[in-house]
Structures
1.
Amino acid sequence: MDFTFSIPQNVVFGAGSLSKLPEVAAKLKKSKALIISGPHLEKIGLVSKCSEAMQTAGIESVSFCRTEANPSVETVEAAAELYVESGADFIVAFGGGSPLDVAKGVAVLVTYGGKITDYEGGGKVPGPVVPMIAIPTTAGTGSEVTAFSVITDHSRNYKLSVASNYLLPAYAILDPELISTVPKGTAAACGIDAMVHALESYVSKAASPFSEMFSLRALELIGESIRDYVKDRKNKTAAERMLMGSLFAGIAFSHARLGDVHAMSHPISAIFDIPHGVANAIILPEVVKFNETSTKNPCMLEKYYQIYRCVSESPVSKENFQPSMLHTELSALNQKLEIPAGLEKAGVEKGRFETVIQKMAEDAMKSGNIIINPRETRLEDILEMYRRVY
């Protein structure tokens, strides 16, 4: 088997590690940061905490705190304008996946100009971008170690992806204390998102021994802690394991990509503005069920068992395992975490759903993740799964 890998970033992990931001920022030898975050973190004072920390190192900052759940092309452009107007020379991405996605888009625009849509796809970013420090405040996206930025283009009701290793932040600071104030619903959705990253990268056709190592450890960490963390976000051990699991899952899918769950969830989020993690969680059991036929291969059967072992509270022995048990476990986990049981329960109106289902399926089929899903997937398969998850 042939494969290549690289992890070029500097990662700082540990409780209280936000205090190391001045030290990390000083290493960039820059003078002014644009902090990209969201309104909730600004409201509870954490954005100010970042700004004040950098002041101790003599670094000025200005904040953009208008990122939304599914960040748009317009948000990226507005943040880029502020970066230029303020005279900033590096970016601190502080928050969940949305601020990190916006930060990557801004880094491209302020370096090379144009519109973010000009860089859609892979290999369009011509070279290095302005440096970024990523500080995740949710255990979910793993965006601090991924080469992707996902932005919603409302003119097309479409989620576009920009993919380039140049988008990798120079530094990532992961502080489990920062995820202790996450609302319960957000913790659940982000936690399942991280689990999906680990699961899909593990069964991906592009998986390698390197990526599988990170995928499986991520599944173990998330599976053993997600219930405790969602129940009590101040559970220090659970929070630490969730954040580490999210990190490892991010590394895994950066190298092995994902699958049908993400291909299908992006159109749902783009059209109905459902949070990405919620869309993933709703779709996950159905895609796992669809992929069961791939377990005729002994290697995939073993992977299904390992995933089941990680996510089940009381797993059966390998000898007694049936692939359908994984679908059952994931559905039960969604219920326990109070994830909506279908798109209808998530607020999607039936008439509108029927109007756009064909477009959603066609958009899903454009995703590169379809190609590496373990089971070959056709347009009619996507349509059927969409109807099942409604």
2.
Amino acid sequence: MAKLILSMDGLVLKEIPLNKERLTIGRKPHNDIQIDNLAISGEHAVVVTILADSFLEDLNSTNGTLVNGQPIKKHFLRNNDVIELGKYKMKYMADLQAGAAASDFEKNAAIRSGSLRMPSELQLEPTDRLTRSSVGVASQPKPPAPGMMAAVQLLNGPNAGKELDLTKTLTTLGKPGMQVAVIARRPHGYFITHVEGAQFPLLNGKSLDAQAHPLADHDVIEIAGIKMAFFLKG
């Protein structure tokens, strides 16, 4: 199980296992991690954990949240990341020995480190120009039926045409430090959510917001400069 190690001035104060999906951090007593210090906002930040992946979000705190010395709003946590809240630090320690879930995490970590290449990290040809009509977008996209599987297909770059099956509950796409999004497979369909980066992903040419958005057959997604088509597999 992944955990956070809370410290101040080099002294470890406690270890916090990430054993729940949503873990709040702040000065008020109702938070899962309470830090009674005036530099910490009442509700400062939250860590969301889905399977082996964890995401940190600053909750519009007064003094902000840093990860590895850089201010963040949303951040995909990686092993040994150091979160800073005022004088307090929390080190994120991923559990790499947690069976099947961990193997997915290690695969994702390899992808993010560059030893494997995700579609979202492929270099685009500067001359690529694609429109929705070029991939046969229907005038009324069909939403996925319960239990239906789906995939994304690259539309540009040297690997155009390759497909990535969305078999996991959570599929991470993007380039850490630039733009990251996740596609979640839920019982009632697939949803895309922005996780990290100043720029939001585009869905059919329109910028998303911070909320989860449902995906329909033949939707066109653009993440970190990579265009891909979402489609259902009958």
3.
Amino acid sequence: MYRSISEFVGDWAYEEGLTLQVLETLTDASLSQAVLPGKRTLGDLGWHLVSSVNGMLSAGGLGVEGPSFSAPTPTSAAEIVDGYKKVSAAATAALKQEWTDAKLPEALKLFGVIDTTYGGLLQLVVRHQIHHRGQMTVLMRQAGLVPPGVYGPNEEASAAMRS
């Protein structure tokens, strides 16, 4: 759990950079890649990363400007990247303006079912991004893209280091 706004903001900036590396690798053609027919596509997952920042933080009472969970997935990879940049900046600004460190340990019932704290919500938002980035890197390979190394080198960078 985060104990200070600045601790979260620093962690979020790092994770935001990693998420942008993944999103910026997407192409318009890759957005339709799904693990199975009828399942979420690469575009759906990318857009879910965008809309979930607002959706999750708004569920905790933070006023974040950005698309909702029900916003339709764009057909342009650039729109997804732009949407993420905007909602991420809006979330950081709202957090700094609306919450204090003292709020983070307070109890929160998220979505009416999850018992957590406001700091726990911030941790959940970060972990949610990590979870879906992992899914996306698999779909990126299936779509013929080379995903970036996120927490370490990707397959291509590892091969280059071995040679």
4.
Amino acid sequence: MKLPSTGRRVLVSGASRGLGRALSRAFAANGDRVAVHYGSREADARLTLESLAGDGHILVGGDVSDPAGAARVADAVDAGLGGIDVLVNNAAVNDPHPLPTTSYEEWAEHWQRHLSVNVLGTALLSHRAARGMIDRGTGGRIVNIGSRGAFRGEPDYPAYGAAKAAVHALGQSLAVSLAPYGIGVASIAPGFIETERVAHRLVGEEGEAIRAQSPYGRVASAEEVADAVLWLASPAAEWASGTVLDLNGASHLRT
């Protein structure tokens, strides 16, 4: 997808690899300057940075689940790009923890980690980015990466499903409160995405079962999801603010 470039300043959280890398590439190819964020995978994030078209992109590291860490990330983007016009909240954790086989101590740890990164990190970065947009009077866009798991349930990843439901709700609340400032907020709810992290699940019988979830008989590419995010972040998508866009190949239909 190619949309008219406005030379925007874009922060993509969790951009070391996978979907985050595809998102960064999509915005860079569109003529935007991208801040590639990483939590711990600096080497992978540098590969993302080196793969981007154009120039003026920067690398930013930090723990977005920590209030001070998220503030430092936002400050680094302000210093490196001069501000944030588009925030894509992609940073997330997704570790299995089915209740029947997970100890109480592990269960508590998983919930704390999923809520801290997936929900609190999204909220913290959204506040910092939106406050900058408000103070500059320029408006902007925030796009949250949610999940179909927020609607269909995730029995092996319950904290992930619950966290993504919270991300969707947060996005809709912010869409209402930030619209008067020209800031659009939307979320996208993808199904299974083929990335390096989950490649092992797409082989053998498990892979066949996952692909069979969609009547297309396949899963999404990271580039397909990135194209949809690029549109949601565009000026053309202002009236989509508040939406949660399903992007799952008809593998889960909401009523």
